[in-house]
């Protein structure tokens, strides 16, 4: 004969016995030995101020570049400087020389951590 | 080979562009100093006559060894008279327009030819001179030089600017009415008559030449004996249908008149070997290519280059590009004229036109620099040009275009 | 992509400048010189580049011929102008290569618009240009303007006009550049949207 569920409901559901539930390790319970490089790429926005100055000048002079030589030069210099720096940064990243210090990029960090991996 | 005589048509358009842009002569910015690196650029036209590459002697008759490799200017009037109907290559005409002067270089082949002509005994049968040489060495311009001499020395000019035009691209071909199986080129004949008229109008007016017999063209039209020669020419121009026959009649008359010492004649035919080419591009009624001797214009011009008359000179040129593909292996007269042509002309005086000599080459470079045509005069550019063009005049002209 | 490793040095084409860099390059591997460069009077770097852009279907010799013809027309026009003008003849440039360089310099843009999607909306964002790209655009515009022509007009002719126009700061190419600058200016509010 079946006992109706209402009889048990009064007492509430009995808690599970911890000892009887097996532990499953879905993700490893330790940090990875690598970090991703996504956050390092940074924003591409550069020379906003120079661009603003250039636009103001161009607008004042009816878009005749002759009169805005200074602004144009400054803008181009800025952009070139930015690109050069980006290029240099990428180069150093790719070289991946590990130096002591706390300001490491992802490649350096990866290299560093590969030397001291988490024990299995 | 077609590109060899490639014609540029954009000159007129360039000048319209010039007008369109007349407000903007500012094609210049920071580089006023660049024009100074072209050394002789500053020479203006007044001092031009004394330049080392120019000569003030404009009469070809007075040119001598002294003037070799120097430029002389053809006066505008004379150029108009002699060359308005052709005679200078198209690209040279263009160059003349750009440089605003018609300059010809005095070269040794022309001098040699002039020497022969000056010393020739005109009472003897007409001597045939044949100019020959590789492509683009200046055969036509040598002929132009001689023509200028002829025009100044009261020769009646019988000048065909480029004979292959008749065989290769006639304006119209029609069956001849008088000779069975022959082809007439009425428009080309009329054009030639116009050319003859412009070249010789002055001289014809002076000489008062008369026709020797009556020419009956049709029932109503005829030219009576004793009519001025000009009337004959006018008739040919006015009645294009009879232009070919008029040409034949005119040339026969001229031969007679010259032999009778009434005038001297200079025959100048460029691309003469076209008359002996195996075939033409003209089709007959039965859709077959015609040989040059089936064209009515051929016979009169062959007759006038014959030696059976006196008081005249014939300056002919044989040219590779007068031929068509497959017949252009050599530029030698015997090859180009073929057996028939060679026997027709034999004996003749061959005059070889060659590439520039060193002196002529440098003179030409100087001339280009003077006319600002070479604006990028880096050190040593002459050597490079010399090497690349092999001192061939036409190649040099082509190379210098983009400089 | 270069077929050479990055430590290979560029070849020095000009004979005169070879002596200067001889010591530096003595022990460095050098790339082979390309077959389109030469140390002759007919060679110009920008000119060479333009020939490559003119080329269609690999017919380089035709492109070369076209540019030569362009130069010829430019020279004819300028000489005609030179002969016509009585005063300030010094100011007129006849050198076609110089005019070409002037024209390209004049029509180089500073900025470019690029579409960037933000929140489902595409914004036209002004971004700065590298030097190389701006040269490319200038030449491309010159050629585009030259190719947009009547069928009867030849390319060298039209190209010559465009070069002459651009060299003195007018004409369609310059207008195109100005238009682009104007558009960039009106979209300047989006400038900070830029990201890689």
C-alpha geometry of chain A: elongated
Which structural category do the helix and sheet elements of chain B fall into? alpha/beta
Helix-and-strand structural type of chain A: mainly alpha
- Report the total helices of chain A: 4
> In percent terms, what proportion of residues of chain B is strand?
5-15%
**End-to-end C-alpha gap of chain A:** 54 Å
> What percentage of residues of chain B falls in helices of 4 or more residues?
40-55%
Poorly predicted segments of chain A: none
Radius of gyration of chain B: 23 Å
Shape of chain B: globular
Please describe the biggest sheet of chain B, giving its number of strands, its sense, and whether it closes into a barrel. 5 strands, parallel
Low-confidence regions of chain B:
1-49
Q: What's the multimeric state?
A: heterotrimer
Family (chain C): Belongs to the universal ribosomal protein uS7 family.
Domain Small ribosomal subunit protein uS7 (chain C): 39-188
GO biological process, one term (chain C): translation
Organism (chain C): Drosophila grimshawi
What do you see in this structure?
The complex is a heterotrimer of chains A (120), B (403) and C (196). Chain A has 120 residues and is an all-alpha fold. Chain A has a domain at 46-93 and 106-115. Chain A is 45% helix and 0% strand. Chain A is built from 4 helices and no strands. In chain A, helix 2 packs antiparallel against helix 3 (69-95). Chain A is elongated and about 95 Å long. The model of chain A has no long low-confidence stretch (mean pLDDT 80). Chain B is an alpha/beta fold and 403 residues long. Chain B has a domain at 123-352. Chain B has a 5-stranded parallel β-sheet with strand order 4-9-10-3-11, sandwiched between helices. Chain B has a two-stranded antiparallel sheet with strand order 1-2. In chain B, strand 7 (215-216) and strand 8 form a beta hairpin. In chain B, helix 3 crosses helix 6 (139-152), helix 5 (108-119) runs parallel beside helix 6 and helix 8 packs antiparallel against helix 9. Chain B is globular and about 75 Å long. Chain B starts with 10 loop residues before the first helix and ends with a helix. Chain C folds into 2 domains: 1-43, no CATH class; 44-193, Ribosomal Protein S7 (Orthogonal Bundle), CATH 1.10.455. Chain C is 51% helix and 8% strand. Chain C has helices at 15-18, 22-25, 45-54, 60-84, 96-106, 131-147, 155-167, 172-186; strands at 111-118, 121-128. Chain C has a two-stranded antiparallel ribbon. In chain C, helix 4 crosses helix 7. The two termini of chain C are 22 Å apart. The relative contact order of chain C is 0.12. At the B-C interface, helix 1, helix 4 and helix 14 of B face helix 4, helix 5 and helix 7 of C. Chain A: InterPro entries: Cys_alpha_HP_mot_SF (IPR009069), Ribosomal_mS37_met (IPR033620). Chain A: GO terms for molecular function: RNA binding. Chain A: This is GH21543.
């Amino acid at each position: 004969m079946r006992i109706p569920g209402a009889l048990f409901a009064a007492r509430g559901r009995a808690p599970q016995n911890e000892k009887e539930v097996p532990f499953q390790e879905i993700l490893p319970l330790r940090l990875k030995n690598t970090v991703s490089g996504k956050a390092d790429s940074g924003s591409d926005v550069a020379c906003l101020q120079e661009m603003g100055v250039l636009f103001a000048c161009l607008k004042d002079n009816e878009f005749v570049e002759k009169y805005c030589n200074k602004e144009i030069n400054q803008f181009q210099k800025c952009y070139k400087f930015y690109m050069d720096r980006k290029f240099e940064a990428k180069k150093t990243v790719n070289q991946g020389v590990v130096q002591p210090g706390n300001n490491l990029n992802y490649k350096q960090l990866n290299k560093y951590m590969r030397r001291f991996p988490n024990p299995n | 080979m077609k590109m060899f005589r490639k014609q540029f048509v954009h000159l007129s358009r360039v000048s319209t562009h010039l007008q369109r842009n007349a407000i903007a002569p500012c094609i210049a910015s920071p580089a006023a100093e660049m024009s100074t690196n072209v050394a002789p650029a500053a020479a203006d036209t007044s001092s031009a006559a004394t330049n080392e590459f120019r000569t003030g002697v404009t009469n070809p008759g007075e040119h001598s060894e002294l003037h070799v490799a120097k430029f002389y200017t053809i006066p505008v009037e004379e150029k108009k008279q002699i060359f308005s109907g052709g005679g200078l290559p198209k690209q040279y005409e263009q160059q003349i327009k750009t440089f605003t002067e018609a300059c010809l270089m005095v070269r040794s082949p022309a001098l040699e030819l002039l020497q022969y002509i000056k010393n020739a005994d005109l009472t003897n049968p007409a001597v045939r001179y044949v100019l020959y040489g590789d492509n683009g060495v200046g055969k036509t311009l040598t002929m132009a030089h001689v023509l200028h001499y002829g025009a100044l020395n009261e020769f009646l000019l019988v000048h065909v600017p480029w004979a292959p035009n008749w065989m290769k691209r006639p304006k119209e071909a029609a069956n001849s009415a008088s000779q069975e199986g022959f082809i007439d080129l009425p428009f080309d004949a009329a054009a030639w008559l116009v050319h003859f008229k412009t070249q010789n109008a002055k001289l014809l007016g002076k000489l008062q030449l008369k026709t020797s017999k009556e020419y009956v063209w049709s029932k109503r039209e005829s030219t009576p004996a004793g009519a001025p020669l000009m009337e004959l020419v006018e008739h040919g121009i006015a009645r294009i249908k009879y232009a070919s026959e008029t040409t034949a009649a005119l040339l026969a008359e001229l031969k007679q008149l010259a032999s009778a010492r009434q005038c001297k004649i200079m025959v100048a035919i460029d691309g003469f070997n076209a008359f002996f080419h195996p075939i033409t591009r003209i089709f007959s009624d039965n859709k077959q290519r015609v040989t040059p001797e089936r064209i009515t214009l051929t016979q009169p011009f062959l007759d006038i280059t014959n030696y059976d008359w006196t008081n005249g000179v014939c300056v002919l040129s044989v040219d590779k590009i007068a031929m068509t593909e497959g017949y252009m292996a050599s530029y030698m007269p015997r090859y180009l004229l073929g057996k028939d042509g060679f026997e027709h002309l034999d004996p003749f005086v061959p005059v070889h036109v060659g590439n520039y000599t060193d002196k002529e080459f440098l003179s030409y470079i100087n001339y280009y620099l003077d006319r600002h045509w070479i604006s990028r005069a880096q050190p040593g550019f002459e050597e490079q040009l010399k090497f690349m063009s092999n001192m061939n005049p036409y190649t040099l002209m082509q190379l210098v275009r983009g400089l | 992509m270069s077929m050479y490793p990055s430590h290979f040095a560029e070849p020095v084409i000009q004979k005169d400048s070879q002596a200067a860099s001889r010591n530096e390059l003595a022990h460095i591997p050098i790339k082979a010189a390309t077959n389109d460069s030469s140390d002759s009077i007919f060679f110009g770097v920008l000119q060479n580049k333009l020939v490559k852009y003119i080329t269609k279907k690999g017919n380089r010799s035709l492109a070369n011929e076209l540019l030569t013809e362009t130069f010829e027309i430019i020279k004819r026009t300028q000489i005609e102008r030179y002969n016509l003008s009585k005063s300030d003849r010094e100011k007129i440039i006849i050198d076609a290569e110089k005019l070409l360089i002037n024209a390209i310099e004049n029509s180089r843009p500073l900025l470019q618009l690029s579409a960037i999607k933000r929140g489902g909306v595409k914004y036209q964002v002004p971004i700065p240009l590298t030097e190389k790209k701006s040269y490319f655009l200038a030449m491309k515009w010159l050629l585009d303007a030259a190719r947009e022509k009547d069928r009867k007009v030849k390319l060298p002719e039209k190209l010559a006009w465009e070069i002459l126009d651009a060299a003195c700061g007018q004409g369609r190419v310059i207008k195109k550049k100005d238009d682009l600058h104007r558009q960039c200016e009106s979209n300047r509010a989006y400038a900070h949207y830029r990201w890689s």
